[in-house]
Amino acid sequence: MTGWLLLTAGLWPSTAWSQDEGGADVTAQMMPRVSRSLLLDITRTDAGRFVAVGERGHILYSDTGDDWTQANEVPSRATLTSVAAAGDRLWAAGHDTDILASDDGGESWALLYRDIERQQPVLDLHFFDEANGMAVGAYGLAMFTTDGGETWDERVVSADEWHLNAILDRGNGRLLVAGEAGVSYASDDGGTTWVDIPMPYPGSMFGALQAAGCTWLFGLRGHVQRRCDDEGDWEEPATDTVATLLGGLADDGRLVLVGNSGTLLHGGNGKPFRVVHHSSGVDFSAIVQAGEGRYLLTGEGGVHHYPERDAP
Hints:
Blueprint: H1 5-11, E1 39-44, E2 50-54, E3 59-62, E4 69-70, E5 80-86, E6 89-94, E7 99-102, E8 110-113, E9 122-127, E10 133-137, E11 142-145, E12 153-154, E13 164-171, E14 174-179, E15 183-187, E16 195-198, E17 205-211, E18 214-219, E19 224-227, E20 245-251, E21 254-259, E22 263-267, E23 274-277, E24 284-291, E25 294-299, E26 302-306
Antiparallel strand pairs: 1-2, 2-3, 3-4, 5-6, 6-7, 7-8, 9-10, 10-11, 11-12, 13-14, 14-15, 15-16, 17-18, 18-19, 20-21, 21-22, 22-23, 24-25, 25-26
């Protein structure tokens, strides 16, 4: 496995990650060790349930973070790259522009949208509430829904059709989308109009967070960029890592970022970033809080714990 596995799984179409030939209706296969398969995103519902998604349409759920159950009859075998929760509902999305929804905590799923021919995988999905949501993805894909995902309207965020990698909801209609080639995008009207934001680093950003009064973006080769004033300049704090950063969360003003080669990065609350290496050494793509100072990570090899647990 290379450090680019998660990036290629997220972006590029492949028969291993798409539906059967002809796009016939298919369901994800039930697998005995699915919790150790490639999982690309994870969320936690208001009720406290963890839901993770990944390759071949795999969706797993757990009430503890320890014992995982594979959702049955998932109507997709595409790689699922993103999962989102709002109220009592869940949504998942990924390759083939598949968008699925669940009303029972992730145990069963319905297909809401699919467009195999466009070859634009969804790379991030966000719901503001149970009705209103947004999806972004490869080659400028940007879609909005006002009916819980039943129908989607396309909008132009990037006129250059750069990949749109992550959505940040800053509240009060203010949105930010992390993009590639040193450009991200901002909207102050709920996504109706957008402006380009040239970034100091010319590479791709894969995530965006709000913490400690600042907006943060992170991505290729360990680069982190922040702005603490909407009218101010973007800054690049030192991170002491060149590992690509793919996922993160804000925990009480502090950032915890994850990425390639088992890298975890702590900081952002007025202190320098600190690099920690998970002993698995795998590429991580997402992180969710599991308790005070405890986290679940997803990526190669499925679900991992941090801090690490003693081997049996």
